[in-house]
Design a protein that fits this description.
It contains six helices and four strands; from the N terminus they run βαβαββαααα. It is of the alpha+beta class and about 160 residues long. It has one domain. A four-stranded mixed sheet has the order 2-1-3-4, sandwiched between helices. It is globular and about 40 Å long.
């Protein structure tokens, strides 16, 4: 599915939290992973996952109660249209030009994001497979992953 599969031991360099129960969202994430640059190592996780709960305590956000996308990279947390244009920087040509969305006034970007977000269940007329088994799905927080994403290593889970 992706042009740059993760190799064993590679922990990623960014994390996308999304509504993994939404077919439109799953289809969008599949598209993003398919068009990601070969040097990008985005990891994904559902808003209602144990990892999201752990990160939510750190950021003081109940991710599961939101209907947003969240992106964590370089220690920064982005939401909605800010997350979308930051994610666009990870895309290969010609898609990386979507990053220019950052130049659109934030209020306009957010209105566009909300317009689509509020209709996403109607836009998901075709199902999209679950992503929990995808190689990019993050099963646990490791110290290496936290470091690469600019998160405190204390968020890492104990070895099982």
């Amino acid at each position: 599915m992706t042009s740059a599969p993760l190799t064993t031991g590679e922990s990623g360099d960014g994390l996308l939290l999304f509504d993994s129960d939404c077919p439109f969202c799953r289809r969008s994430v599949r598209w993003l992973l398919k068009h990601e640059r070969s040097d990008s190592r985005l990891r994904i996780v559902g808003l209602e996952s144990a990892i999201s709960r752990r990160l939510g305590k750190h950021f003081q956000i109940d991710f599961a109660s939101t209907d947003s996308i969240w992106y964590i990279a370089n220690g920064k947390l982005s939401r909605n249209s800010d997350a979308a244009w930051r994610l666009a920087t990870r895309l290969k040509a010609p898609w990386q030009h979507l990053e220019a969305l950052r130049r659109v006034p934030r209020a306009w970007r957010e209105n566009g994001y909300r317009f689509i977000g509020d209709r996403r269940h109607r836009l998901s007329f075709l199902g999209a497979g679950r992503l929990e088994g995808d190689e990019r799905w993050l099963d646990r927080l490791t110290p290496e992953f936290c470091r690469r994403c600019g998160l405190p290593p204390s968020l890492a889970e104990e070895d099982r």
